[in-house]
Amino acid sequence: MVNNKIRSKEIRLIDEAGKQLGILELEKALQMAWERGFDLVQVTEKIEPPVCKLMDYGKYLYRLEKKEKSVKHHRVGELKGIRLTFGISEHDLITRVNQAKKFLKQDDKVRVEMRLRGRERAHQDFAREKIKKFLEILEESLPIKVERELKKQPRGLTTIIAKG
Q1: Could you point out which of 56, 121, 125, 129 has its C-alpha 20 to 30 Å from the C-alpha of 71?
Q2: Which of residues 34, 61, 88 is at a domain's end?
Q3: Is the CB of residue 134 less than 8 Å from the CB of residue 93?
Q4: Could you tell me the CATH number of the domain that includes residue 22?
């Protein structure tokens, strides 16, 4: 609520610099706002007496609108996943690289994972080489940054990369 729409008899006043001026009568606070060239804006009504602040209401609305627009248009990069298999062929590896490139160009992060099943777990060094080969092929065409190093998980190996 602004200026004359405030219904309480007494208010707790905060000036334009954020300093508390104490509890004042509404008429006195409105007079002070008018003298200083500001509006009296009710910040909260949940407590007694309600808290009001001296501010330029037009600028306040403009900032709120601008903040709302920036939040609406801001896209946060998501985490996309690429899953490699233990016996992946060269052509399929290139296909996954192209898919990862597409995600990275959209400013998304990519989790590269390789599930190891059964006896594949005994050959983790081979799996690490496959993932390193994938990253090398990807880095030839697009600079990447490794966000999380290659790490052993209960079911395999994972790493997270982003555009570098």
Answers
A1: 56
A2: 61
A3: yes
A4: 3.10.20.80
- Residues 22-37 have a mean pLDDT of 86
Sign of CA dihedral 68, 73, 74, 80: positive
Q: State pTM to two decimals.
A: 0.55
- Alpha-helix runs per DSSP H in the chain: 26-36, 57-73, 90-105, 124-141
The boundaries of the domain holding residue 135 are: 79-163
Evaluate whether residue 66 is within a structural domain.
Answer: no
CB 145 within 8 A of CB 151: no
* Tens-place pLDDT, residues 94-112: 999 999 999 999 889 999 9
Q: What tens digit of pLDDT does each residue of 111-159 get? A: 999 999 999 999 999 999 999 999 999 999 899 999 999 999 999 999 9
What does the block give as tokens for 27? 């008429």
